[in-house]
Amino acid sequence: MVKIVSIDTEIYELDNIDDILTHIERCGRTCYKSENLITNETAVPFISGILKSGHESVIEHANIIFSMPNNENNQKIFEMKDIRGLNISVEQDENINEKVIVVSGNLRALRDIARTYNIHDFLYAINKSIFYIKEDENTVFEGLKIEGIQKSRFSQIHNYITTHSILDVGAYKDITRHRLASFSIESTRYCNYSKGKFGSELTMIEPSNIEKGTPMYDEWLKGVTSIEETYMRMAELGAKGDQLRMLLPHSTKADMIMTANVAEWKHICNLRCHMSAHPSVRAVMYKMLDKFYAIWPNFFDEQYKKFAN
Ligand SMILES: Cc1cc2nc3c(=O)[nH]c(=O)nc-3n(C[C@H](O)[C@H](O)[C@H](O)COP(=O)(O)OP(=O)(O)OC[C@H]3O[C@@H](n4cnc5c(N)ncnc54)[C@H](O)[C@@H]3O)c2cc1C
After folding, report:
1. How many domains does the chain fold into?
2. Does the C-beta of 271 come closer than 6 Å to ligand 1?
3. Does residue 35 surpass a pLDDT of 90?
4. Whose CA is nearest to atom 8 of ligand 1?
5. What average pLDDT is seen over the chain?
6. Is there an atom of ligand 1 within 6 Å of 267 CB?
7. Is the pTM of this model over 0.85?
8. For 181-199, what is each residue's pLDDT tens digit?
9. How far is the CA of 177 from the centre of ligand 1 (A)?
10. Are residues 97 and 215 both part of a single domain?
11. 196 with 252, same domain?
12. Ligand 1 atom closest to the CA of 174, numbered from 1
């Protein structure tokens, strides 16, 4: 029987450098629904595997924030602005009452700096050799230090949030249009829902815009039930995940991991909490906004006042 669940969202916290590997593994395993395989020893082999296979978008979910003195040598970093996923600004450091260069970015961007510019300072500062492109290279920047993992005391472009959401395929199609963010999503190609691991059933999201107990809801339920029956019959005939997914409707449940900086999240809230957005997207974005506001009332004050129910 089709399982019906509600939209939900949670924040995947990361604030300690030693938790970077487990955070990335947790985000990556969402794509394969293999979170149950996580143990204390699985992060390194899992990440080595994704790096070897070139599935590097998964390491975009961990962001590191650095600062360094604003001197002529360190200003070379501005030549690297073309690296995607990197944010650079000059900001006042209240701790020392001076302007500093603040650089932040995800691990993919920091590896791209090493590959493109042969600058390994950021990877060496993080000190996790699994991410190195080369070892024992000279460093270039002076006084580089880590200021935070995901969160920092600097501006909104240097603060990042990773969310895990349970939403329908229609909503994730809309949300993944936002380009300044990173995504890992349960794959409908690799997850075969006819297998026991998925309870041999399809899972749908309760529609946000079709009221339960109405004739229209009953028709929706009949429709998804019939899809499930066909799905299982095709699986019995030997259909693979790639073939089976051709049946799946917009209501199908998906797990989505999404990471962006606060500036982009605010932009997404402005567009997707708005009445003109689809009700499924609005439902998940309202939940996210509540959680963002609880952590960063200053950053999300405007959006919360505008959209909170
Ligand atoms: C109510 C609604 C209806 C929609 N309907 C449709 C539709 O019918 N068809 C459809 O195809 N899409 C539709 N969309 C999607 C929409 O067109 C955008 O693709 C999506 O909302 C992403 O937002 P964005 O472009 O503002 O910025 P993001 O992708 O979130 O990027 C953030 C900002 O970065 C900058 N930016 C990012 N990439 C570039 C770039 N390549 N060039 C210049 N600046 C860039 C822009 O300043 C942008 O605002 C709809 C969206 C909404 C909210």
Report:
1. 2
2. yes
3. no
4. 174
5. 94
6. yes
7. yes
8. 999 998 777 666 677 666 6
9. 6
10. no
11. yes
12. 15
